[in-house]
Amino acid sequence: MPPVLVASDLDRTLIYSAAALGLTVPDAEAPRLLCVEVYRGRPLSYLTETAARLLTELGEGGSAVFVPVTTRTREQYLRIGLPGPAPRYAICANGGHLLVDGVSDSGWHARVRARLAEECAPLDEVREHLVRTADPAWTRKQRSAEELFAYLVVERELLPEDWVKELAVWAENRGWTVSLQGRKIYAVPKPLTKSAAVREVARRTGAAPVLAAGDSLLDADLLLAADRGWRPGHGELADAGWTAPAITALAERGVLAGERIVREFLRAAGERP
Known about the structure:
This protein is globular. It is built from nine helices and 15 strands. Helix 1 packs parallel to helix 9 (255-270). It is of the alpha/beta class and 273 residues long. The chain has two domains: 4-113 and 193-270, HAD superfamily/HAD-like (Rossmann fold, 3-Layer(aba) Sandwich); 121-189, Hypothetical Protein Ta0175, Chain: A, domain 2 (Alpha-Beta Complex), CATH 3.90.1070. It has a five-stranded parallel sheet, sandwiched between helices. The chain starts with a strand and ends with a helix. A hairpin with a 3-residue loop joins strand 9 (139-145) and strand 10.
């Protein structure tokens, strides 16, 4: 019997910054946390110790192929040390890079770039538009990731809602999509998807069915392509009330949602006939 493919977004789905933990219980009742990312000598991302134990069980059980799926760059992803066996496959840059044992598959990356060149406005045009239209009063950083997509770091409370809507319309007409996640506004080419890279991993491994989890608009295609999926009670998809027939909308928010997601993965992987 082939293993299940478990594809999970990372930030605000499986792992959480201190600001995103979302703990509402008294400190004495809070779950114990495990730090899984350190940046410039400081702890950055966490999951609960229970989630860590469950994720290790998932990876060691032999019934699942666990694949981290993230919009992070390769460098940002490789800072993370998840518990359990190191994943053979990982997907970075929203599907732009398929890592095999930590190394980007050059053939996959070349195919992605060829498709973007055929179907979307170039990255330089999008970057120029962002620089020209974003107000320095609420823009803190302007970045591109892996020369595949662009994003802004903003002061969320100062960000005009109409500006994001106008950007989304402008991007739509050029084959791009816009996602607002916390303090970041992403502009991403439409063909650059997590689901396409997950399908490639499924083809290579023969793993089926596909289980998935994610919290943002950039995870919607991944969830729709999965046989079963879960989204936390926070995030862009929850705020929009987004759902689909095979998707379970969880009530849990913050780091406890991450723990619940790993528990659901493990339960679903063990339920196959």
